[in-house]
Write a structure and sequence with these properties.
The complex is a heterodimer of chains A (248) and B (345). In chain A, 36% of the residues lie in helices and 23% in strands. Chain A is α/β, with parallel strands linked by helices and 248 residues long. In chain A, the strands form two sheets. In chain A, strands 7-8-9-4-10-11 form a six-stranded mixed sheet, with helices on both faces. In chain B, helix 3 runs antiparallel to helix 11, helix 4 runs parallel beside helix 6 and helix 9 packs across helix 11.
């Protein structure tokens, strides 16, 4: 079986610090897979290696059976692997329209075009409109991103990742820092992701994890502790020990 | 519904690149000033050259966020190339020579772009400065080609298209420079309002996010740096063609540094900053040199400090207060001159 995303013996050192230990993950196509673990377990480091921001010390990364370990960040995106960031990574001076427009242009192959004006391709405009509408950003599409409320910025963060039409989407704590009132928009956006998109979710919020995921991997100190269906993981004594130990 | 949204999206996406009437006004004023002061062609030509040179820096600094203290490297290559083409009679037609000189600078720009795109602002400042110093030293070392400290001797620029000869009042030189600036400005305007241009602004805002949506960051930076080198090369070649001079100071540090100053004055990231900055900077220089020939640098320095402290937005608002007041009386409350502009470099 070809996995949507797979790591084989992934390993990462920062000097003497061993942050990812022989990690082998298999994520099935269409899965709603969650990667959880206590603070400092190395979850974001794993994401950064998957997306190419960090280079692994050892091991391979496969996207739909193809080795992408040595590809730069932007080429992985064009192969169908996209992500959101734990801390918003947006363009403060650009508008949501421009932000989404860039992502769509880049994917449809118009991103390097220097002689055509923005907004003159109907296929691109249609997709921008569709994405903005889906994430309820149409009414603020001409505002500078830095002036948007945090919840809207968070939605834009997810919208940008979706605009790249990923086949595998990595969500790094999508609801982090979002006030209670705006939370349901984020959760709805996450729940409404098309079924054919494989999702790897990193999250602290256990309610979100257990309502969303159909498979859970628990990471502790950079190594895989347990993997299984949500109810198995919830019952697992090792996981309980880690989380209760963490809470105490 | 969706089609409505699509039309709306298209409309607003194109909005940014649409010609504002104040832009037409700007160019009409430039042309009018050119026609109104026939005795000032030399200094006006100088401003146009400086404006083109500043436009070049604005492309990389204002849009892509690449700082440079060595932009004179490309200016100098363009200048010497235009001079050598003329001295050796290789290409006698000025426009053709101008393009070839620009391309020579482009080659250097492409070759050095790989050094510049690495690293952060401070390393970029040092690397660009280093490249300009290297070029200056090379020009001095190979004095048999460049004429060394004496400058290039025997530059004689032929008539443009074999028709328009350069006159001693600088009339031809002025309109030639204006035409070149306008054409290259139009090209720059197309570039910055394209998806490519927008991706540069994205890279300047957040390179991490830019690469995470599939933008090949390094490739884009190399491309715009190379284009900017072409612009700077053309500005250098214009210098040689309109003054019949090419000496070592085309590579000088002051030339690169002045450029950053005038982008601070005019603002970066909206294309007109370099043009306005060039005019204001050169006029201030003239004014202060006339008032106090010895200490004019002091006053230029003071003006810069004030600009940075007060903020360009507020100064623009003050400067536009009177024209807006008059416009309001004539055209009603809504009319206003607005400068759209990003933050200072």
């Amino acid at each position: 079986m070809t996995y949507a995303l797979e790591t084989r013996g992934l390993d990462k050192h920062f000097g003497g610090l061993h942050v990812t230990r022989d990690l082998s993950l298999q994520i099935r196509p269409g899965a709603r897979h969650a990667l959880i673990g206590p603070n400092g377990a190395g979850k974001t480091t794993v994401i950064n290696q998957l997306t190419g921001v960090l280079e692994p010390s050892a091991g391979r990364i496969l996207l739909e059976g193809q080795d992408i370990t040595d590809l730069p960040v932007h080429k992985r995106v064009l192969r169908g692997l996209s992500r959101t960031f734990q801390i918003n990574q947006l363009y403060p001076d650009l508008t949501p329209l421009e932000t989404i427009g860039l992502a769509v242009s880049e994917r449809l192959g118009g991103g390097g075009n220097w002689w055509r004006r923005m907004g003159t391709r109907d296929d691109i405009n249609a997709e921008i409109a569709e994405t903005l509408e889906r994430f309820r950003l149409l009414d603020v599409m001409n505002d500078r991103t830095s002036t948007l409320p945090y919840g809207k910025q968070r939605l834009l963060e997810i919208a940008v990742a979706i605009a790249a039409k990923p086949r595998v989407l990595l969500l790094d704590e999508p609801a982090a820092g979002v006030p209670e009132g705006e939370r349901k928009d984020i959760l709805a956006a996450v729940a409404a992701l098309p079924r054919e998109v494989t999702v790897l979710l990193i999250e602290h919020d256990m309610d979100l994890v257990f309502s969303f995921a159909d498979r859970i991997s628990v990471l502790v100190s950079g190594a895989l502790l347990v993997e299984g269906a949500p109810d198995e993981v919830a019952r697992d004594p090792q996981v309980k020990a880690v989380y209760l130990g963490e809470a105490a | 519904m969706t089609t409505n949204a699509q039309t709306e999206v298209g409309f607003h996406a194109r909005q940014h690149g649409r010609w504002h009437w104040s832009e037409f006004a700007f160019w009409i004023v430039v042309l009018a000033v050119g026609l109104a002061f026939p005795s000032r062609y030399l200094i006006m030509t100088e401003i146009l050259r400086l404006a083109l040179f500043a436009l070049s820096l604005d492309l990389i600094l204002g849009y892509a966020g690449i700082v440079s203290l060595g932009h004179a490297a490309f200016f100098g290559v363009g200048a010497y190339c235009a001079g050598l083409l003329s001295v050796h009679g290789l290409i006698n037609e000025p426009v053709l020579a101008l393009i070839v000189a620009g391309l020579a600078a482009t080659v250097l720009g492409f070759a050095t772009s790989f050094l510049v795109i690495r690293g952060v602002d401070l390393t970029r400042l040092m690397v660009t400065l280093g490249i300009a110093l290297l070029m200056e030293a090379l020009a001095e070392r190979f004095s048999n080609i460049t004429g060394g400290t004496d400058g290039l001797q025997g530059i004689d620029i032929q008539p443009i298209f074999g028709v328009f000869a350069f006159d001693m009042f600088g009339r031809t030189g002025f309109f030639y420079s204006l035409a070149v600036l306008f054409v290259l400005f139009l090209l720059a305007r197309v570039i910055v309002h394209s998806p490519f241009g927008l991706s540069l602004r994205a890279i300047k805002n957040n390179p991490l996010r830019a690469s995470a949506i599939g933008i090949p960051v390094n490739k884009r930076l190399i491309a715009i740096y190379t284009v900017a080198a072409f612009y700077a090369g053309i500005a250098g070649a214009l210098f040689t063609q309109t003054t019949a001079l090419a000496s070592l100071d085309v590579f000088s540090f002051e030339r690169s540094a002045d450029l950053v100053l005038l982008l601070v004055i005019g603002g970066s990231g909206y294309l007109y900053g370099g043009l306005i900055g060039a005019a204001v900077f050169r006029m201030l220089q003239e004014l202060f040199q006339w008032i106090t020939p010895q200490y004019w640098m002091f006053w230029i320095g003071l003006v810069l400090v004030v600009i940075v402290l007060v903020g360009r937005h507020r100064i623009h608002a003050y400067a536009l207060w009177l024209p807006n007041l008059i416009l309001n009386q004539i055209a009603g409350r809504k009319a206003a001159v607005v400068l759209t502009d990003n933050e200072a470099p």
